Amino acid sequence: MASGFGYNGGVSRCFAYWQEFSKCYAQTDVPSKCSAQVGDYLECLHHTKEIARAKTVKAEFIRKAEHQAHEGRKASDILADGVIVGVGLISRGEAAHSK
Q1: How far is it, in rounded angstroms, from Cα 33 to Cα 25?
Q2: Which of 20, 45, 43 minimizes the C-alpha distance to 33?
Q3: CB 21 within 8 A of CB 37
Q4: pLDDT value at residue 9
Q5: Using CA atoms in the order 71, 77, 80, 86, what is the torsion angle rounded to 10 degrees?
Q6: Over the stretch 32-81, which tens digit does the pLDDT of each residue have?
Q7: pLDDT value at residue 11
Q8: What is the pTM for the complete model shown?
Q9: Which of 52, 64, 68, 81 is the most exposed place for a label (fewest CB within 10 A)?
Q10: Which residues contact 40 (CB under 8 A, 6 or more apart)?
Q11: How many other β-carbons are positioned within 10 Å of the β-carbon of residue 90?
Q12: Ramachandran angles phi, psi of 61, nearest 5°
């Protein structure tokens, strides 16, 4: 990945982050000063923060669906709301007005 070549022969998606890190690492005497660049590069490679965020959103949706099911709401109504709408990020009224 650090070579800069992607799967299709072009520049890889994380090559810019790798260049930032290698530039910082070459210019500093203390490698720990480049921790922000390392974090950006590793996030680009592995998407750990993105995956954690998606898991949090999914867990909240499941928690809310279980709570609504416990209150007696029909399962079909819960599933019809969808994941994003069910979490409360977008309400049905706003989605209809934006179209």
Answers
A1: 8
A2: 20
A3: yes
A4: 78
A5: -20
A6: 999 999 999 999 999 999 999 999 999 998 898 888 777 666 666 666 66
A7: 85
A8: 0.60
A9: 52
A10: 17, 20, 21
A11: 13
A12: -65, -45
User: How is residue 95 written in tokens?
Assistant: 């989605």
**Residues 20-27: contacts with CB under 8 Å, at least 24 apart:** none
Q: What's the pLDDT score for residue 82?
A: 61
Provide φ and ψ at 5, rounded to 5°.
-100, 130
